[in-house]
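Bumping my old thread because nobody answered last time. Still need a sequence for this structure:
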């Protein structure tokens, strides 16, 4: 207490007794009353000062307050009969509780005539009135205040406000009393102070100075108004408003359930548990019919006034089965709130079935539970159980209404979170099924990839792919469909399939994007939107790398340019023509060709990697280049380093696709090329040269098949093609490729010969003898190719 307070510490006899009944404090007023100095009595049992056989509860009662007349021993051997007022004082933090014991000491000061503190008119007020003197000691109370305090004026005269109630809020009252006393200005104390024996009552104190004829402040009058109903209504409204703000901040079921538990503790209960029914398998809706006991509930969240929730029997994530009777099952079967109390025996049968809970209930003094079903949109989701411990009143009907209001708000949020989670899991499963599970091993590139769905908006339409092409070439593609959810994932799947189909016919990157743009326009029109083309949109980057020439052709449609990391060089962005996004229709695409040294790393990604609210795109590009600059033999490690450097730990706002590819060159020793004259008679020498080359490569086991394929393809080129004609053999460890190129743009087609036809069986024979065959158009003609599996030959 501040030393500026005008308190006479000897005006009351005050002692503090700990929970075991030992005196721990003794003031000057107590020494004046009984003659014992503090050093003689502190540390002694308080009962040693009592005369006669007195119940021990006199100075350590079971409740929170006791008052009565007792006989105490004086130091001189005599006795003193006094009226005592004792309060249980509970610590604000961890610490032992104690008792404040006070008794007024009769003052010797005569009351002067006309004392303003003896104003009868003021005491006649229908409000509860208390009058304090200039030492802030209680001088008078009216009959209404005496009823409120359950104490008579004769007994309490001379006590301070803190001694009168024994509550921490009384110190705030004393500060306001002092302000009125020193300033002479009245005030309304907006602090609601529970007083009296009933803890459910709250009071608003209005203070005014009392002056004498000369205008001097001689004391303070306090008018207490019962604002219990308004106070409780305000508290309930505040809790409902707080619940609407704090519950449902995310679309996570566990987080939402925890928010419900946290809002109710300690405002409504000392311990709150939230248990939910497990969702049905295969993503179906929760059952809407009546439940049957026993009921299995999974603990999702709980909260307690005790740190760590030691009273909890079930841990979060665990499934527990509740029979009837039990508060959880009874409330779910009945479909409404059920309040059960230990005093009425409502919990006895259930606790007999569960001794662990019975032990916890006894340990923490649990006396009342309130089970509130969690229901939304006609579906029962689970139950919230609110529990109160000792020293707190049982639940009232108003508490039940408030709990139902808060739980109803939370139920809608939990149901929304469940529906979102189910839709997100479905979209994610669809997305994963449409993305490549593993990237193919090719002789052209070594590749690694990552895909991360958005943390809040869910999966979207980002995709990546590595597509083997003819001639040991490989296509790399990264794309992004506008929007999120199942529709975006489905559109992504259609575009990815279209890209693989177009890549299979060996279209150039700019031509492929043109065909893909037409497809997106048609998809937008089929969606039936009034907006027309552009409603379904996407971006895409398509690149083709040839390990023989070590050249890469790229084109993009509104997509970020890739970053290139040459061996021993600095990462930098490849400059490409921007190209319009897919779906606008009618606009051209351009491609660019660059030469890549062996070991060059290409980073292809979607905009979710570099576009964030925390920084601009240029800063993200700098971070990306820094992450790619660190040398690493593992592309998977590089992927993880890039994501760690650019993405926040709490999740990304947009989904992210990342594809890293390290180029590999095919040695010239694995490539053989012949220029073919326009003479059919030279086909036989060409076959001989092919066989000799296969012997050099130690691939003689494939000679028979290679001779037949080369003979057919070269003969067709001489007969139907245009010079110059070129034959090329390429091989790696698993495949031998035969390619015949000419300058004609006419493409061959497979046909079946009739019984008496002399020709028409050549390409059919090639198709039967090889793994696959095909043709591709080039800038100066076409190339017919066929792949022979070397492992199969062995």
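Sorry it took so long. Here it is:
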């Amino acid at each position: 207490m501040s030393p500026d307070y005008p308190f006479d510490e000897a005006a009351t006899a005050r002692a503090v007794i700990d929970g075991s009944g030992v005196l721990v404090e003794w003031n000057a007023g107590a020494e004046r009353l009984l003659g014992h100095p503090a050093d003689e009595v502190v540390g002694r049992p308080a009962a040693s000062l009592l005369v006669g056989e007195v119940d021990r509860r006199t100075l350590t009662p079971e409740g929170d307050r006791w008052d009565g007349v007792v006989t105490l021993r004086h130091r001189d051997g005599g006795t003193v009969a006094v009226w005592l007022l004792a309060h249980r004082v509970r610590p604000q933090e961890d610490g032992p509780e104690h008792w404040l014991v006070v008794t007024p000491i009769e003052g010797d000061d005569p009351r002067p005539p006309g004392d303003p503190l003896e104003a009868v008119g003021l005491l006649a007020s229908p409000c509860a009135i208390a009058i304090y003197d200039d030492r802030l000691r209680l001088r008078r109370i009216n009959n209404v205040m005496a009823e409120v305090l359950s104490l008579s004026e004769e007994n309490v005269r001379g006590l301070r406000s803190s001694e009168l109630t024994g509550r921490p809020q009384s110190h705030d009252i004393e500060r306001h009393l002092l302000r009125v006393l020193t300033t002479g200005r009245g005030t309304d104390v907006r602090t609601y102070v529970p007083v009296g024996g009933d803890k459910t009552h709250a009071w608003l104190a209005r203070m005014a100075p009392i002056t004498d004829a000369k205008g001097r402040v001689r004391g303070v009058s306090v008018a207490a108004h019962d604002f219990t109903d308004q106070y409780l209504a305000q508290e309930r409204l505040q809790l409902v408003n707080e619940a609407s703000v704090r519950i449902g901040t995310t679309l996570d079921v566990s987080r939402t359930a925890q928010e419900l538990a946290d809002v109710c503790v300690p405002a409504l209960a000392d311990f709150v548990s939230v248990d939910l029914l497990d969702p049905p398998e295969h993503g179906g809706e929760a059952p809407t019919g009546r439940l049957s006991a026993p009921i299995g509930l999974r603990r999702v969240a709980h909260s307690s006034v005790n740190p760590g929730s030691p009273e909890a029997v079930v841990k979060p994530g665990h499934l527990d089965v509740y029979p009837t009777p039990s508060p959880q099952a009874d409330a779910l079967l009945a479909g409404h709130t059920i309040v059960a109390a230990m005093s009425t025996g409502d919990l006895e049968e259930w606790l007999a079935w569960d001794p662990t809970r019975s032990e916890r209930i006894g340990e923490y003094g649990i006396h009342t539970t309130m089970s509130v079903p969690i229901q939304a949109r006609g579906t029962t989701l689970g139950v919230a159980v609110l529990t109160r411990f000792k020293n707190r009143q049982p639940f009232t009907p108003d508490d039940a209404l408030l709990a139902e209001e808060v739980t109803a708000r939370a139920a809608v949020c939990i149901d929304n979170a469940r529906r979102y989670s189910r839709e997100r899991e479905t979209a994610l499963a669809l997305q994963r099924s449409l993305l490549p599970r593993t990237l193919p091993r090719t002789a052209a590139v070594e590749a690694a990839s990552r895909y991360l769905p958005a943390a809040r908006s869910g999966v979207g339409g980002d995709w990546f792919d590595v597509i083997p092409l003819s001639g040991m070439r490989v296509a790399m593609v990264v794309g992004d469909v506008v929007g999120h959810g199942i529709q975006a994932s489905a559109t992504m799947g259609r575009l990815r399939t279209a890209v693989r189909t177009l890549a299979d016919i060996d279209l150039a990157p700019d031509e492929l994007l043109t065909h893909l743009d037409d497809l997106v326009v048609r998809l937008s029109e089929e969606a039936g939107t009034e907006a027309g083309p552009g409603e379904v949109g996407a971006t895409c980057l398509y690149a083709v790398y040839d390990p023989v020439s070590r050249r890469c052709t790229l084109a993009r449609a509104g997509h970020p340019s890739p970053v290139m990391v040459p061996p021993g060089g600095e990462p930098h962005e490849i400059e490409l023509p921007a190209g319009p996004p897919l779906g606008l229709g009618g606009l051209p695409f351009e491609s660019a060709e660059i030469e890549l040294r062996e070991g060059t790393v290409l980073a292809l990604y979607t905009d979710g990697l570099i576009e964030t609210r925390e920084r601009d795109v240029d800063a993200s590009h700098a971070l990306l280049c820094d992450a790619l600059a660190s040398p690493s033999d593992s592309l998977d490690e590089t992927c993880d380093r890039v994501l760690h450097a650019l993405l926040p730990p709490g999740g990304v706002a947009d989904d992210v696709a990342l594809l890293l590819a390290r180029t590999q060159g095919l040695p010239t020793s694995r490539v053989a090329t012949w220029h073919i004259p326009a003479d059919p008679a030279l086909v036989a020498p060409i076959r001989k040269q092919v066989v000799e080359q296969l012997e050099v490569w130690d691939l003689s086991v494939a000679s028979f098949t290679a001779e037949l394929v080369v003979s057919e393809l070269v003969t067709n080129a001489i007969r139907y093609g245009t010079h110059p004609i070129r034959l090329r053999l390429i091989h790696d460890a698993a495949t031998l490729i035969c390619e015949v190129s000419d300058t004609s743009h006419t493409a061959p087609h497979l046909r079946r010969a009739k019984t008496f036809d002399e020709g028409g069986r050549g390409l059919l024979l090639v198709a039967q003898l090889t793994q696959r065959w095909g043709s591709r158009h080039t800038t100066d003609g076409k190339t017919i190719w066929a792949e022979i599996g070397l492992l199969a030959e062995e």
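Residues 691 and 703 are 6 Å apart (CA to CA). Let me know if any region looks off to you.
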